[in-house]
Each structure stands twice: as C-alpha cells, then as structure tokens.
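Please check this chain.
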Amino acid sequence: MSDQHNCPQCGCEHIYQDGGLWVCPECAHEWNELSTSADTDAGDTGVIHDANGNVLADGDTITVTKDLKVKGSSLVVKSGTKVKNIKLVDGSDGHNIACKISGIGAMNLKSEFVKKS
C-alpha cells in the first residue's frame, strides 16, 4: 500500500477495502475512496442530500415530493409545497431539516422526501 492510504481519523496504515468503502480495523472508521481530509474533518454525516442526491445547505429552498401527514394532527403537507430558508440539523430520528411551512408552522422534515428547488 502507498503512504496515501492511511486512515484519515487515526492514521493507521492497516486499512482494507470493503466494497466501495475503506475501513480501518483499529478505530472502525469508514470512508469512501474519493474523500479528502477536508471532507473527513467535517464528517460524512454532515452532508445531507435530497431525494435526487443534490447536496442541501442552510438557507436553501426545497420542494416537498410526497404528501406528508403531520404527526399528532389532521394536517397534511401537500406534495409540491415550497419551503424557503431551511436549516440543517442533526436529527437522531432522521428528521434532518428544520423549517417553517406557511399555514402549518415550524416542523422537521426528512431529506428523503424533499428536492432542492
């Protein structure tokens, strides 16, 4: 192995490839081959993609791609609803977008049900 292939987290040189990912046996860190050290510093969990694979950022405008029932009420967020000025959050339950939807109010959405506008 060349010197370029070391674990970006702990620097271990005993890494191996598993499918499309590289794995470090010492710290159990996984990364893809194209990652740079700048990408791994931010962490792969910091990158949030929409339903089409586009990278989302704070302040983006998104469109809901599926009718979504609002838990605990009879309201529904209709498909095609535009949401402006989103905020990306680290939702442990999968809801990684915080936003305000007109007529409904503040809520969290899953990125798999939206597309970037």
User: Anything to note?
Assistant: Helices lie at 37-42. The radius of gyration is 18 Å. The mean pLDDT is 83.
